[in-house]
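Many introductory courses stop at the sequence. We go one step further.
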Amino acid sequence: MKWKLNMKFNITKENFPNILTMVRIWIAFLLVAFLIFFGTEIYSDFNRFQKYRISLSWIMFVFFTLAIATDFADGYLARKWKVVSDYGKLWDPLADKIITIVALVYLILANWFNPGLVVLIVIRDLIVDGLRIQMARKQMDVKASKLAKIKTFYISILIIVTLLLNGIFLSSNGIPTNVENLYSTAQKALSIVVLIGLIGAVIISYVSGYQYLEKSLKHKQ
């Protein structure tokens, strides 16, 4: 099965899942560009940039959801077509980390995620990525564990839901006062739910991270 893209590059069953992984990385870079060029200025002046904040919120939601969709697609296709590669085992989780960190930073700017908890998640990911690279150099199995996959899925859903809530509440600007008060109360309540969810993400992250550390230490012995 082969589709010709041009004279120099062919998309095949063997490389298509890896192409999806690279697409996800490029989406992450695109979102980084949005944050760098628009994020800081947009969030420095709420009244002046309200429309842009709404646009950015939906851009983040759409692109992050698209990235997660490609994540599930490349994993499914790789298993279905039996073309799981070392490249995919290494870069697929790294692509997840990049896109997730971008979304986490955005949700800090949007005042949905606690910076301290996000820092804990990022530190864990950096440590695990370092371990995975070392394990790959030693030709150890760097395939993500079941708990690590659950952690990725859990955080992805948490981010998608929070991005959706962020877009909805930002888009509600200008509604009647009585409804606005209801929205404000709902937002505060949902912020607490999101905080609890983020704490859960930290716990799952470190438990799954310990599994990588344990595996690495066993190999040294």
